[in-house]
C-alpha cells in the first residue's frame, strides 16, 4: 500500500511533535541521557547567545549545567513542519519556560525552537535544534 502526500505529512508532523514533546519532558526532568538520545550522533544543540553543543556527548555534558534546581516546565506550542522529505524535516515551535518559586509558577522566558530532524532507523531525531529567546 502506498502512502499519499497528505498521509506522509500527517505522519511526519506527528513524529516531529513527539520528538519536540519528548525533549521538553526530558529537559524538565533533568534526563540528560534522554536528551542526547533524541539527537543523531553528530547532532547540534544551539542555545543562541549561550552555547552550542555538537555531538551526543557534548549535548549530554552541556545540558548537565541546565539541570533543574526548582520545578520547571517547558511548554511548546504551535509546532509547524515547514518542509520535509523522506529523510529530513524542518519545523518551528514556540516555547514558554515556567518555573515554580516561592510565590508560585511564573513565566521565566519565551522563545522559539528551529529544528532540523533526520529519520534514523525509523525514528525522527534532531540533527540541529536552535533555541532563541525573545527579549
Task: Tell me what you see in this structure.
With 135 residues, the protein is α+β, with helices and mostly antiparallel strands. The chain has 3 helices and 6 strands; from the N terminus they run ααββαββββ. It has helices at residues 5-29, 32-37, 56-64; strands at 39-47, 51-54, 72-84, 88-101, 104-120, 123-133. Strands 2-1-6-5-4-3 form a 6-stranded mixed β-sheet. The longest helix has 25 residues, at 5-29. It is globular, with a radius of gyration of 15 Å. The N and C termini lie far apart (49 Å).
Question: What are the key terms here?
Answer:
single chain, 135 residues, alpha+beta, 6-stranded mixed sheet, 50% strand, globular
What's the end-to-end separation, in Å? 49 Å
Instruction: Report strand %.
Output: over 45%
* Count of DSSP H/I helices: 3
Element string (H = helix, E = strand): HHEEHEEEE
Structural class: alpha+beta
- Residue share in helices? 25-40%
Radius of gyration: 15 Å
What strand line-up does the widest sheet have? 2-1-6-5-4-3
Largest sheet: 6 strands, mixed
Amino acid at each position: 500500500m502506498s502512502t499519499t502526500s497528505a498521509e506522509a505529512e500527517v505522519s511526519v508532523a506527528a513524529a516531529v511533535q513527539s520528538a519536540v514533546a519528548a525533549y521538553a519532558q526530558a529537559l524538565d526532568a533533568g534526563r540528560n541521557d534522554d536528551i542526547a538520545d533524541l539527537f543523531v550522533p553528530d547532532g547540534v544543540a544551539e542555545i543562541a547567545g549561550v552555547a552550542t553543543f555538537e555531538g551526543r556527548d557534548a549535548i549530554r555534558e552541556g545540558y548537565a549545567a541546565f539541570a533543574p534546581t526548582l520545578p520547571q516546565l517547558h511548554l511548546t506550542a504551535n509546532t509547524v513542519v515547514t518542509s520535509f522529505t523522506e529523510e529530513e524535516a524542518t519545523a518551528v515551535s514556540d516555547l514558554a519556560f515556567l518555573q515554580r518559586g516561592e510565590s508560585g509558577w511564573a513565566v521565566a522566558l519565551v522563545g522559539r525552537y528551529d529544528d532540523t530532524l533526520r529519520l534514523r532507523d525509523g525514528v525522527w531525531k534532531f540533527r540541529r535544534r536552535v533555541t532563541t529567546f525573545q527579549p
